[in-house]
Amino acid sequence: MAARxxxxxxxxxxxIGLPIAAVVGGVALVVISLRSGSVDxxxxxxxxxxQIQVTELGPDQRASALKLSAVLRVGKGMVELLPVSGDFxxxxxxxxxxxxxxxxxxxRTVSLVPSELGWRATIDLPADHDWLLLLKPVxxxxxxxxxxxxxxQAGHLGPALPPQ
Length: 164
Known about the structure:
- By secondary structure, the chain is an alpha+beta fold.
- Helix content is 21%, strand content 34%.
- The chain has two helices and ten strands, in the order H-E-E-H-E-E-E-E-E-E-E-E.
- An eight-stranded antiparallel β-sheet has the order 9-8-5-6-7-4-3-10, with no helix packed on it. Strands 1-2 form a two-stranded antiparallel ribbon.
- The longest helix has 26 residues, at 10-35.
């Protein structure tokens, strides 16, 4: 009987193919993980000690104590904020941080200027994904939050902590 060519032997493909597939898969996994950026979807500054993550809750507590809430409306080429409750400084500009849930490169910060009914900014906001919203004054003394789902054109912003 004539000797078979080793490349025609199915078991040889397993011996060679599996390790090659494992190496290629491992390299692809490393490349994908390095290109994805940060895994943190939180926009707050976070301190890490061992396995514990700690963030400053002072602005959320102040917003809760002041009973602040507002409605954000997204329209064509603009964002409008209307105060609902609490004592807002109506003549001061506000900062709206719009964060993409997974891609920090798409995050935006918008300055809202006082208008007749509340605050307003001119911006073309893509509506093809959710937005994480953080509204705060320029000094950052309080903060209101909301997740604006894809396709939704308005949302109620409130403190992250319940009133005490």
